[in-house]
Recover the amino acids of this structure.
């Protein structure tokens, strides 16, 4: 057996250990439910080892779809008496919204729309008939989700969709989001607690800091703001008009929108394959989104940023999102080159174990703090795909190799120190394993 075979076998074991039958949890203990973009990454890996199981991963995500088309970021379990008593059930109370599914408890927010990509990748391993059946089975749900995103999350018809909680971006505590919440969303009671230095007490009530050192997780007062935003969404019963009437967090997130633009192309491809004509209205929206991405470009700093939905100001903090327009697949060669230059720079996104979630020279950079510095395999995967799409094959190969090397040395961790390659966060993390399978097999 060579090292690659060993790594592959170890990755498959992680996925098997986290397999709950019809879906895969991200990691035992810390993440005991089904997450939206996690399951998409997981299915992308599973398709190499068991195509049917990969399909099931996606179909089980669709069980959670709301009647209005939303796909929730978390499916927490069956709607039975026991779950009613669980904290998750009470925290979200999404059953109060008439659109929520009758038999399942879910969150009330979404996550980056990677599902069309997962559907296409699974379809690539099928013959024409199987693929047509597969696409036909999932297309109505995909269409409803993309239409929901435009209807509810692009109320000004600008082509960019907005996020109402940092969790929706998938990069929870990324600097642009944290800056936003500290500027606009810090309720007085949290400011007072922050001044009183009661973080250790707050941490006693958190699931994550019981399992992972608090130095690798969100600051306690930021975590409280996250829960206060969530509480507010719950009180508004996840009604977007009520939420936007006075929003604590409303951001057109760069990562989310770059993924959405790419997902739209996949949706068009799926519709074409099964001879379904998308409405002119939707096609116009899809076209608009591609050009709207350019509104997030800042000529002064030569970078893309997320934007505040209310003030329309760019949130000028560099983060891993800065590079993700590569993945959108629609930017010019010139812009792509500028992003790749940042990737090559040791002080920005090119330390020994790239790609850090925040540039190394940023004042925010902390090598093992969650989304404020560590390297994550899922964003590496998106960047590798983006580099390929833009013709930077050598860069894509180099990043593939360094990612595999890092995981070979340190295991299937949730995230890694970009300076040393050391593991941090949860261990035996599903998307790390699944995407290593994909990188090894593709
Ligand atoms: C963390 C990550 C998020 C992921 C979730 C489950 O909250 O920030 O992106 O989906 O964990 O793995």
């Amino acid at each position: 057996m060579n090292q690659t075979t060993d790594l592959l076998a170890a990755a498959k074991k992680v996925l098997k250990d986290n397999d709950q039958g019809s879906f895969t949890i991200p990691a035992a203990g810390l993440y005991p439910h089904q997450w939206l973009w996690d399951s998409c990454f997981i299915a992308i890996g599973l398709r190499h080892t068991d195509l049917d199981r990969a399909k099931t991963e996606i179909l089980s995500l669709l069980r959670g779809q709301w009647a209005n088309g939303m796909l929730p970021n978390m499916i927490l379990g069956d709607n039975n008496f026991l779950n009613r008593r669980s904290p998750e059930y009470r925290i979200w109370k999404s059953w109060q919204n008439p659109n929520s599914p009758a038999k399942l408890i879910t969150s009330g927010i979404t996550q980056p729309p990677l599902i069309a990509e997962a559907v296409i990748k699974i379809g690539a391993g099928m013959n024409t008939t199987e693929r047509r059946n597969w696409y036909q089975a999932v297309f109505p749900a995909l269409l409803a989700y993309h239409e929901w995103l435009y209807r509810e999350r692009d109320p000004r018809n600008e082509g960019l969709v907005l996020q109402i909680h940092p969790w929706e971006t998938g990069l929870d505590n990324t600097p642009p989001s944290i800056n936003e919440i500290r500027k606009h969303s810090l309720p007085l009671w949290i400011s007072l607690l922050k001044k009183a230095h009661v973080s250790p007490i707050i941490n006693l009530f958190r699931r994550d800091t019981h399992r992972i050192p608090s130095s690798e997780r969100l600051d306690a007062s930021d975590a409280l703001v996250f829960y206060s935003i969530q509480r507010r969404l719950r009180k508004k019963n996840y009604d977007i008009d009520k939420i936007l009437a006075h929003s604590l967090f409303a951001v057109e997130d760069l990562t989310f929108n770059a993924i959405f633009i790419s997902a739209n192309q996949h949706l068009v491809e799926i519709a074409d394959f099964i001879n379904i004509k998308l409405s002119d209205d939707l096609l116009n929206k899809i076209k608009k989104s591609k050009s709207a991405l350019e509104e997030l470009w800042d000529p002064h700093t030569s970078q893309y940023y997320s934007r505040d939905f209310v003030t329309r100001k760019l949130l000028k903090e560099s983060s891993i999102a800065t590079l993700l327009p590569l993945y959108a697949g629609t930017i010019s060669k010139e812009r792509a080159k500028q992003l790749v230059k940042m990737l090559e720079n040791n002080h920005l996104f090119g330390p020994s174990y790239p790609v850090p979630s925040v540039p190394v020279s940023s004042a925010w950079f902390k090598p093992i703090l969650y989304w404020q510095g560590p390297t994550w395999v899922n964003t590496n995967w998106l960047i590798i795909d983006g580099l390929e799409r833009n013709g930077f094959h050598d860069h894509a190969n180099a990043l593939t190799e360094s990612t595999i090397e890092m995981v070979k040395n340190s295991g299937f961790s949730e995230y890694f120190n970009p300076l040393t390659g050391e593991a941090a966060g949860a261990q035996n993390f599903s998307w790390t394993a699944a995407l290593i399978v994909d990188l090894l097999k593709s």
